[in-house]
Amino acid sequence: xxxxxxxxxxxxxxxxxxxxxxxxxxxxxxxxxxxxxxxxxxxxxxxxxxxxxxxxxxxxxxxxxxxxxxxxxxxxxxxxxxxxxxxxxxxxxxxxxxxxxxxxxxxxxxxxxxxxxxxxxxxxxxxxxxxxxxxxxxxxxxxxxxxxxxxxxxxxxxxxxxxxxxxxxxxxxxxxxxxxxxxxxxxxxxxxxxxxxxxxxxxxxxxxxxxxxx
Length: 214
What we know:
Elements: H1 8-21, E1 28-32, E2 36-37, E3 40-41, H2 56-64, E4 68-72, H3 73-84, E5 93-99, E6 103-109, E7 112-114, E8 123-124, E9 127-128, H4 130-133, H5 135-140, H6 145-163, E10 167-171, H7 178-181, E11 191-193, H8 200-213
Parallel strand pairs: 1-4, 5-10, 10-11
Antiparallel strand pairs: 2-3, 5-6, 6-7, 8-9
C-alpha cells in the first residue's frame, strides 16, 4: 500500500521492500504523478509537496541498488497505449488522458512522446481542469455518470480546440467504466477508451526503462 504521508523517504522504502520481496536485480521503471525532468520531480499536484525538487531516480537507485527510470505516469500510459493499445498503428497527434485522482495527459506525435504536457491543469470554467472533471470530483460530489460525462466532454472540447488531435484515448482508473460515460462525449475528434485500462502506466514504465538500456 502507498504509505501515508507519501514522502520521498517512505515511498522509496516501499519500493525497496518490493524489490527485496521479489529478489529483483534488474532495471526499474516507475510512473510518477509529477513533471519529471532527468529523474527529478518538479511538481506535486497530487502527492506530498516534499517531492518537489527531489531526485527520485537517484533516491530509488540508492534504496534498491537497481538502475531506475522515472517517467510521468500519464506519459507512461501514453507510451503503452501507442505500443500495445488503442493507439497502436495510428499516426498523427494522439492524446492520452488519464482520469483518476487528477487528470494526466500524454501527447504523442507519430509515435514520439512530447513529455510533461500536464493538460489536466489547463483552465476550465475559471478553475484548474482536474478540479472540474477528474474522477475524484465525480466521487466527492456524488455526480451521476451523465453529469460527470458532460464535464469530461467540456474538458475534451477545450483540448480539441487547443490542439486538434487525431485521436483521444481515455485511460486511468475510471477507464474500466467507460461504457457508463462515453455516450456523453460529443466532440469531433474520435474518442476511445484505453485498451490496457489502468495497467497502461505500469506497462509504459517498463517500456521506458527498457528503452533507457538501449
